[in-house]
Amino acid sequence: MLLAIDLGLIIEKLVLILIVVMGSLVIAMYATYGERKIAAALQDRRGPNRAGPFGLLQPLADGLKLFFKEEIIPDFSSKFLFILGPSMAMLTAIMTSAVVPWGDTVHFFDRDISLQIANVDVGILYVFGVVSMGVYGIMIGSWASNNKFSLMGGLRAASQIISYELAMGISLIALIMVTGQLDLKEIVLQQQKGNWNIIYQPLGFLIFLICAFAECNRAPFDLAEAESELIGGYHTEYSSMKLGFYLFSEYINMFISSVIMSTLFFGGYDIPFVNEQHLQESIGQWAVLLQVLCLLTKVVGFIFFFMWVRWTIPRFRYDQLMNLGWKVLIPLALINMLATGGVLLFLNK
Amino acid sequence: MQALTNRIKQVERKPLSIMERLYLPAIFKGMIITFGHMFKKRPTINYPEKKRPFSPVFRGLQVLNRDAEGRENCTACGLCAVACPAEAITMEAAERKAGEENLYREEKYAAKYEINMLRCIFCGLCEEACPKDAIYLSETFAPSDYQRKQFIYSKDELLIPHPVNEPEAYQKALGNKAKK
């Protein structure tokens, strides 16, 4: 019966979706500001400081500028795909946030509201599926541009994602073996009771981290847009808000992969050194807010790390990238998986 | 073979050690260095709010001087225009009429005095050539503008404020000259 669907549930989920999507957009927006500020700080510069106090309105000004720019669609491009490209990139970037547990359950209006949009019991697999779709936006856009440099960028992005997805997947298998779970919420709850997964899987985390850099097309693996070699890479022909979507989706991807890394390896919304149950008893619902803030703090830390790395390490050469992916990370991930399996077998868990 | 100079330095091309091939220690070192830079003093000055002090010999925009009673010093002798290597100065002389003694110090004065700021090279030779202490280079530099013709400065822009009528503006315009 279709009518039997709880109306409250729909409203609750809609509100949650709105908050999460808006939240990740705002965070991505301010990540661009953060990026520029951190880049400036690391290079002894000041960074944007004209628009508003400390330049805090800079992202708004940038967005406004992109909106008002003339939109150019090249004559020889295939127009449908040309528009589909950035839309796909944005869509897949936002979709991942659906399965992330942002906090514990809250009690509002006589309802138990779980701060997770969709409690999918194969959360990790869903994240993987969506993340690997992210490259389609880049590939479609670069193909539709009908430009050699764009195509080159798209091809690089595709091969890079394929090479690093393997190592990422294998490093996650080891994690799943430790937790015995695919459900992100369950993984967080386990870490809340026990230790964070980083303690059990340090090598797995390192591999995952490096692969996350590659998946996000972030420096030092930003070969897809390598501006010194490929003009702008896959977004060479893009202008106006379509370019904005591409650039924006990169930051959303970074935000989401930071969330995923915090969730899988750093306890998600778990507040370190604090017993959640005691906290819940003493301050009630506010504990959930603290949890969300804690997760966001971890995420901000990761985003800072992403930027810190970007402004430190030069871009990899294409063959170095492939060497690192296939000859180093995949064997390492395999060894990590076998070792984890061996230890688990030995402990007879 | 004897090298041309003895400064040749043999480059070692040993294969990388395991620590170097691990790559991560080197990255870590680099990241420490960039992190350290976050707390370094930034050399940039926030320009319009904060201005860098000029050196005492800074040569900026020309100013046409007045004496203590507010009379123009310039006698339109044309020595500055002759001295000017960029040929930026144009002037027209006029005779002082009776009753204008409070305006001009000498019997002859510059009815028109123009400096083309796009030609001027701020060498200060006009200041050196002037026998009447009528022109000197101040601490301000030429502001930007949208049109070329705006850069031909006439007496309106060049004359120093009146010392009796607007003493504050006069002191400000005097700037470094007062200290010299």
What does the secondary structure layout of this molecule look like, with pairings?
The complex is a heterodimer of chains A (349) and B (180).
Chain A: H1 7-42, H2 58-68, H3 79-95, E1 105-108, E2 111-114, H4 123-144, H5 148-179, H6 184-193, H7 197-200, H8 202-215, H9 227-230, H10 240-265, H11 276-283, H12 286-310, H13 318-347
Chain B: H1 18-22, H2 24-37, E1 62-64, H3 79-83, E2 89-95, E3 108-116, H4 125-129, E4 135-137, E5 152-153, H5 155-158, H6 167-174, H7 176-179
Antiparallel strand pairs in B: 1-4, 2-3, 3-5
What does this entry look like structurally?
The complex is a heterodimer of chains A (349) and B (180). Chain A has one domain. Helices cover 68% and strands 2% of the residues of chain A. Chain A contains 13 helices and two strands, in the order H-H-H-E-E-H-H-H-H-H-H-H-H-H-H. Chain A starts with 6 loop residues before the first helix and ends with a helix. Chain B is an alpha+beta fold. Chain B is 25% helix and 13% strand. The chains are: A mainly alpha (349), B alpha+beta (180). At the A-B interface, helix 1 of A face helix 2 of B.
Main features:
heterodimer; A: 349 residues; 13 helices; 68% helix; globular; B: 180 residues; alpha+beta; three-stranded antiparallel sheet; two-stranded antiparallel ribbon; 25% helix; 13% strand
Q: What is the CATH topology descriptor of one domain in chain B?
A: Alpha-Beta Plaits
Structural class of chain B: alpha+beta
Kindly state the percentage of residues in helix of chain A.
Answer: 55-70%
Largest interface: A-B, 13 and 13 residues
Helix content of chain B: 25-40%
Q: Quaternary arrangement of the chains shown?
A: heterodimer
What order do the helices and strands of chain A follow?
Answer: HHHEEHHHHHHHHHH
Given the helix and strand composition of chain A, which structural class is it? mainly alpha
Count of DSSP-assigned helices of chain A: 13
Strands of the widest sheet of chain B, in order across it, are 2-3-5
